[in-house]
Amino acid sequence: MLPVATCLLALFALLIAESSDSRVARAIAKLTASSAFVWAALEWGAAQTPFGQLVLVGLLFCWIGDALLLSTGQTLWFRLGIGAFMLAHLCYALAYARLPLEPVPLVACAALVGLGAWRSYQWLGPHLPSGFRGPVIAYIAIISLMVGLAGASVIGGAPTLLGIGALGFALSDLSVARDRFVAAGFLNAAWGLPAYYLSQLAIAYAASHVTHASSGA
Length: 217
Hints:
Blueprint: H1 2-20, H2 23-43, H3 50-68, H4 76-97, H5 103-124, H6 133-155, H7 160-182, H8 186-207
Helix pairs in contact: 1-2, 1-8, 2-3, 2-8, 3-4, 3-8, 4-6, 5-6, 6-7, 7-8
């Protein structure tokens, strides 16, 4: 499919731009790749169902976040980008919450994700400037909510790609956090960007195969 091919080719170009530190090429490739996953979601029919619409809005917030994170360092644009991605994670969480969720798997997933979130903050916390601690804690909480709901929904019968996409999205956030707060370098982009873009495509594709979403909010 053309949007998927476009996303993957732009991702390859983005990795080259990151390795050569070309800001103009990086911006063009990144926004092309991000536009392509929105395009793919539309091609797959995301706008046709309430579940898919939430996913589509989440993808659009990701696009905004990607544009804002074209800035370097810990700027106002970076803070706004964090906000955009928080809203993206929240949209996905609301979408997953529409799916059948059994109490026991939900509690088990919440416990596992909570442990992972705590360990992530233990790793990242010492490197955070004081002004970022609150936003990062809130961000981790929303990511954890999304991943926990995704895991429980997959156990309840949702497409496995939804869970894989949610987990990959969360892991890609760690690469951004490492680059901005711990140790900047191409290695972060080398694994984080593929994880991010493949995860968005997985979520967008799986959303078109969800047939048992609740009619409630």
